[in-house]
Amino acid sequence: MGRDPRGPRGLRRYRGLAGLARHPGRSAVVRGHARGAALLAGRDAEDPRERRIGADQQHRRERHRQRQPEPDRRLGGEGLTALKIGGGLLGGVVIVLICNTDRGRILPIQGVPWVVLLVFGILAVWTFVLGRTRFGRYVYAIGGNAEAARRAGVNLALIRTVAFTLCSFTAGMAGVIYASRLRSISTAFDGGTLVLYAVAAAVIGGTSLFGGRGKALHGVLGGVVIAGIANGMGLLEFSAASQYMVTALVLLVAVTIDALTRRGRVAGT
User: Fold this and answer.
1) Using CA atoms, how far apart are residues 208 and 145, in angstroms rounded to an integer?
2) CA-to-CA distance for 135 and 93, rounded, in angstroms?
3) Per-residue pLDDT band at 46 (split at 50, 70, 90)
């Protein structure tokens, strides 16, 4: 009785690649492997849409990472706060020393009052604050649209409090300078004329009463116009009532132009 070639001993002749080539069922084995490989390849194949979506997500993550500013580790928050406080105190000391010094001996300027230099200094400070700082951008944003600024995360109460505090401080400085010029103080003076002149100077200079537009330079230029009107009419011996009427008319014209410009800008958008 012959041995079965499919038995354990018979399979020894078909071990390895050479044995598979001589095996009677080699074609069935090859076909099975081919079908299985095709099924596995179809199962593991990557959808091109998934590949595109993954690439887009990776690209968005890279762009978001590039947009994030690098943290500034050179100076911490406490150190920066201490630096600001120290700078403010130093600036106050310098101002006090300048005010208590006989400036005529240091830098005599013929025909130019020190008030002009002080106004230029305040103008430079306010121009920098409004145009180059985050606080200035927030002030313009709140003036343009307070609700949009609030939704953007701006602290309206804080910015408004700081803005009114700085305006009051500047008004106090103006009062001290005005009193030093007149060399007298009157508690009966209500300041209504000064308020009219201040508002007229800002509006005539180009500052919008509706908010969101204007510069410190505009206020100074408007003040020059108001001072020119008052000085010129005074030299022409016009009465105080006539000066108020002319100033009010100029203010009315400036407000009307501002309103028409704003309406045209809104209609254009």
Assistant:
1) 13
2) 25
3) very low
